[in-house]
Amino acid sequence: MAEPLFHHTLAVRQERCKGCTHCMKRCPTGAIRIEGGHARIDGERCIDCGQCMSVCPHNAMVVEQSTFDQLLTYTWRVAVVPAVLFAQFDDQVTERQVCRALMECGFTHLYLSETGVDILQVLGAKNKDHETPLISDFCPAAVRLIQLRYPVLLQNLSLLRTPAQMTAIMARVELEAEGCLPEETGIFYITPCAAKIAQIKTVGSTDHAIFQGVLNLDSVYNMIQSFLAKNKKLQEQDGGGAWFHFPVFTKTAVQWSLVKGECPMKGERSLAVDEMHNVIEFLEELENEEEVNLDFLELDACAQGCAGGILTVRNRFLATERVRHWSNSLPEQLPEELRIRILSYKDILLPQLYTERAKPKSALKLDKDMGKALHKLEKVREIVKVLPGIDCGLCGAPTCKALAEDIAKSNASMRQCVVLKLKNPKELNSLLRIWGERTQTPKN
Ligand code: SF4
Ligand code: SF4
């Protein structure tokens, strides 16, 4: 089956964009160009990591917004809530109050996203068919990066479903057993990152098949804050009543989305790398290195993992501390009655443990036709030799090599190189002739 086309969630607000190049310099996949004084995102290269948005000094990048209206189209509205949502609040707001506010705001059932860790553990789920080291598929931006830039490492990716997916499957199974009709049940993930929105909205993806919608964590946070502000008594009474449908989870599960959260369960030689540029540096190493003594590699596109997602609102270190503090009050093992509850659905859950292997994306190829691609590659090499090699970004491409590739693909012109233009306009015209572009007579 063909890999579905990526849905993208980030856009540039042209009226705010100053063409300052901060985003272009930050983008890990070279997906941004500055054209006509404004940033443009190339959808073929974008992995929705949100790095561009996090550095824009003019608030010109926007992420697709959630619509809460979709919730109301379902009778049974399930929220799959990540632990980091609770960590956005200070200690005055308890987990129970957050749950209560979510219920009052329209959900009928709440599941902690990380419950899936316990479900997988109780079911004895093991990874299969992978190269070593096993690479986690938990972070969707990291998976997209591998699809785009390191396809050889796709064989290392975990095929086990993510905890959030497993939780959503369990929620659907349980609600159905309680008599809720599948077509009347909507399962919504509350996401701390743009990549998860992109994944859930990518038609044909595994997440799209499991979740009926996705809500941005910052929007949900604002909704809870305004509810709590209007209901001061609820704050004082600690909510009362509203809590998770699956009532207990383990310490390991709650820490799962933090950096090194997955490592304790994945073998002796495990490593966690966070922040996209560190991830790229490490994957380059892994691609070239013959032998690394690692069993498992956890990759988090955001610094501090999900606690640093671009849709979070609180300082990522404080958020991490709160998740850890919460997890310390939780049991190491799931209570027996909950193990039995999971195992009672094992015939339905066990056949759903694995996903299909992600396929490579060919956006970085110069041409679909191999012969033409090789010809263009040669052209890129020649063009790079005459460009200044200082990666100044003034041409609107992030590096001289990126400009050379754009020229080879006829998406840019040598004229964009400001340095060449200033140094020697006559030489520039002769280069334009060599590369088959129309020349301009230099003005005296
Ligand atoms: S960082 Fe990018 S989107 Fe923001 S103003 Fe600069 S060029 Fe425009
Ligand atoms: S979301 Fe990431 S990959 Fe896409 S343009 Fe922004 S920085 Fe580049």
Radius of gyration: 24 Å
Structural category? alpha/beta
Shape: globular
Strand order of the largest sheet: 6-5-8-9
Overall description:
- With 444 residues, this protein is an alpha/beta fold.
- The protein folds into 3 domains: 10-63, 2-Layer Sandwich (Alpha-Beta Plaits), CATH 3.30.70.20; 68-125 and 160-258 and 304-352, Rossmann fold (3-Layer(aba) Sandwich); 370-434, Electron transport complex subunit B, putative Fe-S cluster (3-methyladenine DNA Glycosylase II, Chain A, domain 3, Orthogonal Bundle), CATH 1.10.15.40.
- The chain is built from 20 helices and 11 strands.
- The strands form 4 sheets. It has a 4-stranded parallel sheet, sandwiched between helices. Strands 7-11-10 form a 3-stranded parallel sheet, covered by helices on one side.
- Helix 4 crosses helix 10 (217-230) and helix 17 packs across helix 18 (400-408).
- The protein is globular and about 80 Å long.
- It starts with 9 loop residues before the first strand and ends in a 10-residue tail after the last helix.
- The relative contact order is 0.15.
- The model has no long low-confidence stretch (mean pLDDT 89).
